[in-house]
């Protein structure tokens, strides 16, 4: 689900951003990936976690299920907490 030209990291620091279409967060064992996605043929964008290797496109968690983003302007960051 990672668009071409994107980068993936396995850690994110306080106030570091994940921008739609620019980066994803991949678990250290590369089992899960967090980022923005569009399900099926939908143009709406969601922030979610999906299986990276087991099953392409199998989403396991969605942050904004009820409030989709209508374009690729999505941005996610962590408040000033410790590194995840």
From TrEMBL:
Keywords: Kinase, Serine/threonine-protein kinase, Signal, Transferase. InterPro entries: Bulb-type_lectin_dom_sf. It comes from the Eukaryota. The keyword ATP-binding does not apply. Its EC number is 2.7.11.1. SUPFAM superfamilies: alpha-D-mannose-specific plant lectins. The keyword Transferase applies. One of its GO terms (molecular function) is protein serine/threonine kinase activity. This is Non-specific serine/threonine protein kinase. It comes from Helianthus annuus. The lineage of its organism: Eukaryota, Viridiplantae, Streptophyta, Embryophyta, Tracheophyta.
């Amino acid at each position: 689900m990672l668009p071409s030209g994107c980068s993936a990291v396995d850690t994110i620091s306080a106030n570091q951003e994940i921008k739609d279409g620019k980066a994803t967060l991949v678990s250290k064992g590369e089992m899960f990936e967090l980022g923005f996605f569009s399900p099926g043929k939908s143009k709406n964008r969601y922030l979610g976690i999906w299986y990276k290797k087991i099953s392409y496109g199998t989403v396991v968690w969605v942050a904004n299920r009820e409030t989709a983003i209508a374009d690729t302007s999505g941005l996610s960051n962590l408040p000033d907490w410790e590194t995840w």
